[in-house]
Every structure is written in C-alpha cells, then in structure tokens.
Predict the 3D structure of the following.
Amino acid sequence: YEFNALQQFFRKLKYACGVDRVIVVEPHNIANTQKYCDEVGLELCICNPTRLFAKSVQGLVDTRGAENVYVYAPDIGAVRRNILLAKALGTRVFARPKERLNGHTIVLDEEFDEEQFLAEIARIYGEEVEIFCDLDRVKGKDLVMVDDEAATGKTSSESALLLRKAGAQSVHLVVTHPVCTSGWKDVIIPRNGPKPFNSIFFGNARP
C-alpha cells in the first residue's frame, strides 16, 4: 500500500512523535485530512479564521455599506468559507464556477447553467445567505475574495481581472495560507499592467 505525503505526515506524528491531537487552520481538503487522522487515531481540531477575516475587511463594509460589498467564491469548493464571511459581515455571496483546461485553472466568464450551479450550491451548503452568480451585478460593487491558499496566485488574479472587467469598483484578496511559490509576486502584485487587487490580506501560516 502506497501512502501519500499527507498520510505519511500523520503516521509520523502518531507513531514517531507520539502526537494525539492535531490542530489546524482551514485545511485545503477537510474530508481527506479527517480521513487520514482517523486512519491512525488522531483527533482533528479545525480552527475557523472567519472572525479574523471579518475584522480585516470590516472597514470596507463600514465605509461602503454591506449592500455594496460582495464576498466572492471562485468555485463551489470555496463557497462554505465565503458563506461564513458573508454572514459575519451581513452581506451576500457572489459565486462563479471554474474548471481545469490543459492543466491550467480558468475562470468561466461564458454562459453556463446558472440555475443548476446555484441548485448544487444549495444542495451542499443550504441557503444561509443570498448567493448569486450574475456577473452583471458586480458592476460598481466591492468584492472580497477569500481562499484557503495562494500558490502562484494565477487563479486568484485571473478571477480579480474578470471582476474588474465586469465593472467591480474594487477587489480585495484574503488568503489563509500564502504558500507563495516562485513568481507569485509578479502575478498578484504585477509591476506592469493592471493591478488585480486593491488590497491583500495574507494569513501568517507560512512562517
């Protein structure tokens, strides 16, 4: 049986280090993290950073008003954390699908079945806050994009530029884990060309 890197890590924690409990902040894949902890008998505790995110962007909401600020989810997998932030800020969620093409993640700006997309979100996450996917509604609004990690930053930046093209007044990035692989700064904070973000909030998980 071949273990992947995450499985091996948890096995080492349990059997080599004698660890009983793992406390993490927003793992990329909660289901797999839970499964691998269960395999070796580790108790998993997941910390929710929503309160800190809300505190970081509250000034934007206070200045512009909750009706002018949307929390943006770039795919179905990101919707849950965006619902939590939207509830904390008293605003709504704008969601849009993305897909992988030839190894690259692209944000869909073309036609898709919005009704089916929203129905799938409601099936998975319920209807705690208003969620919409009409790109026309972002015109003149401020968008807060929340993601669990940023590696190259390409997907986040492409999403932000799409929102700007649609008329968004501002786009703000909030990231729990700034992995920041080679070349990330030239993508997220380019020296030339349009700037994707008005402000960026990185968690301090990297150190």
About this structure: The longest helix spans residues 50-64. Residues 70 and 143 are 5 Å apart (CA to CA). The beta strands are 21-25, 43-47, 69-73, 92-95, 98-101, 104-107, 131-132, 142-150, 170-178, 199-202. Residues 100-106 have pLDDT under 50 and may be disordered.
